[in-house]
């Protein structure tokens, strides 16, 4: 899907708090709820796209919680069914979208009319803009040290810029609202700058009295 015009007019959505998908990011999912099993089956028979989106209140326990207006569609690139009936899928982020309208439920899952306009850059692959890679790596080392996490820094240093920023944004345990801010960043350069600031702030907080590192 290299053009916005190839994107569908109706998109199933999968609301999950704290789960971030970005364009060209890779997201594994373990699907077990009947409504989302139905959603995945229907997606496999259609455009193979699922819209990942966060509830606007991560503490909302309603069956159909209010969601943020912006999410990211991912294409199912791998699929397996387990003996107990679960689906193991991998999504690759394609494009962000805004919700224009929410439709009635289909087989228990939610669907929206997405607005793809304004995100043309998500589906156009090209060289990523430059960013302060050294600052990010220094901040990341401090953050990992404070969190008592280990990393293969040689591999991290060799990771292409966009892949590095995207993977870190998706994997780091930021708050849901912080992850939403990363999703809604105007472009890659803005997302990289925001990620660096968030990692620096997280590392700083963990050095303050009264803070504790995660195991």
Describe the secondary structure blueprint for this structure.
Layout: E1 11-15, E2 26-31, H1 34-44, E3 49-53, E4 70-81, E5 87-102, E6 110-115, H2 133-147, H3 153-158, H4 161-171, H5 176-184, H6 188-205
Parallel strand pairs: 1-3
Antiparallel strand pairs: 1-6, 2-5, 3-4, 4-5, 5-6
Written account of the structure:
This protein is an alpha+beta fold and 215 residues long. Helix content is 33%, strand content 23%. It contains six helices and six strands, in the order E-E-H-E-E-E-E-H-H-H-H-H. It has helices at residues 34-44, 133-147, 153-158, 161-171, 176-184, 188-205; strands at 11-15, 26-31, 49-53, 70-81, 87-102, 110-115. A five-stranded mixed β-barrel has the order 1-3-4-5-6. Helix 2 (133-147) runs parallel beside helix 6 and helix 4 (161-171) crosses helix 6 (188-205). The longest helix is centred in the C-terminal third of the chain and has 18 residues, at 188-205.
Provide a short characterization of the protein structure:
This protein has six helices and six strands. It is of the alpha+beta class and 215 residues long.
Jot down its keywords.
alpha+beta, 215 residues, globular, 6 strands, five-stranded mixed barrel
Order of helices and strands: EEHEEEEHHHHH
Q: Using only CA atoms, what is the Rg?
A: 18 Å
Helicity, in percent? 25-40%
* Individual helix count: 6
Query: Overall mean pLDDT score?
Result: 91
User: How large a portion of the residues is in β-strands, by DSSP E?
Assistant: 15-25%
